[in-house]
């Protein structure tokens, strides 16, 4: 794939509007990627209790420190951006944040990051189904290759022009997927893509390539033919500044964009792990996470977040 002409921004935007993606080959140097990889390796080793992972085989969410089967490397690492300035610098790189603002038509707010060491195996989807922006289409994603992709490692697959398919409305009238409703979306999108003759494409990335996709571009993780192959990559999602301001999010500026300061993903741990497990209950973060509990504690009807967690929180499926 030829490298786009980064100096012709108008042409890049036109291409993105038409196709729903931009493939930026050789965007980051291999050395720059190595620096970020080293920072991530340090984090994983030094702060494993801050790093929240999803096991791709079981769907279970845990701290990296507690994860079973680490040697399989089939994990999604959540939100390194909250912990690592190096990840933020990459995700909101000076030129990249400029380009994202141009494509989104407003500054981009980095609001989540996912690091995959192996293929995601994710079925076809559009990101707005799960990370639904307040304003339709005000979401954009980047996918950065941390190593060269092999065809058997489950490379990224995408469907050019699929972002123009009108958004499916779920039972509640929104484009946010409700529980059990995905089969309806899949049937809709398959029919639409067939009617439009949209082909499937594979992005066989080289280390340092960046693939940018539109909020509503259909994509997924390709078939993994060789389970031993890694496919180290970083996915970042960005909302538009306008929506984030409306929601009063805590935004930290970086180059032409922002990153959202927020609590890390929560993990559901049995209360015993704080009594016999040698952990400290994160009282302050728990109250911050659950304003109803905070209000009850302030009103004196609940002694503490910790008491709430033992009596009700854990059973209600709340995490820490
Ligand atoms: O990297 C992949 O295989 C797809 C990831 C993805 O679709 C996402 O995180 O939104
Ligand atoms: Fe996605």
Describe the structure in your own words.
This protein is α+β, with helices and mostly antiparallel strands and 320 residues long. The protein folds into two domains: 9-261, Sandwich (Jelly Rolls), CATH 2.60.120; 272-313, no CATH class. The chain is built from ten helices and 13 strands. Strands 1, 2, 3, 4, 5, 6, 9, 11, 12 and 13 form a ten-stranded mixed sheet that branches. Helix 8 (283-289) packs across helix 9 (291-299). The radius of gyration is 20 Å and the shape is globular. The structure holds 2-oxoglutaric acid (AKG) and fe (ii) ion (FE2). 2-oxoglutaric acid is lined by residues 114, 116, 120, 122, 127, 141, 143, 156, 219, 221, 233, 235.
List keywords for this structure.
Jelly Rolls, binds fe (ii) ion, alpha+beta, 320 residues, 10-stranded mixed sheet, binds 2-oxoglutaric acid
